[in-house]
TrEMBL record:
It comes from the Bacteria. It holds the Pfam family 2-thiour_desulf. InterPro entries: 2-thiour_desulf. This is Uncharacterized protein YbbK (DUF523 family).
Length: 151
């Protein structure tokens, strides 16, 4: 069983109320082989919501208390991102998922690349909060875009 970013299943859960539907992933959900999650919604954030980026590191740094997730208006949304990561982990464990296919560049789901925290569109190597937590619990996280696992 897998968990997948809800936006891949056609759920309009992105910050801008859009989705990133991927037919193959939507098929996995329809066939009961994958469960969609949106950590940001699961952490209590609304849709739509202000875009957010990790400032001061990546998802591992957020979990360790050394970085924060800040939205474009300057609000600290770290606790919502951590709570959503915990909910996504609980869902993954409930369905005995061994893999997650998540949205690259997201401050929750990025598995190789995230935005650098300046809201300038600049990307950097790093992982999102949910990816970091899943990985710490032995769940393999893969990006749909590059098809690779973050080491």
């Amino acid at each position: 069983m897998k968990i997948v970013s809800g936006c891949f299943a056609g759920i309009a859960c992105r910050y801008d109320r859009k989705h990133n539907r991927v037919e193959e992933i939507q098929r996995l959900v329809r066939e009961g082989k994958a469960v969609p999650v949106c950590p940001e919604q699961m952490g209590g954030l609304s849709t739509p919501r202000n875009p957010a980026e990790i400032v001061g590191g990546d998802g591992d740094d957020v979990l360790d208390g050394n970085a924060r997730v800040i939205d474009k208006q300057g609000s600290d949304v770290t606790e919502s991102f951590v709570a959503g990561a915990r909910e996504a982990l609980a869902m993954a464990q409930a369905v005995d998922a061994d893999e997650a296919i998540l949205k690259e560049r997201s401050p929750s789901c990025g598995s190789c690349m995230i935005y650098d925290g300046t809201f300038s569109g600049t990307k950097k190597a790093g992982v999102g909060v949910t990816t970091a937590l899943l990985r710490r619990h032995g769940i393999r996280v893969v990006s749909e875009e590059v098809g690779v696992e973050n080491p």
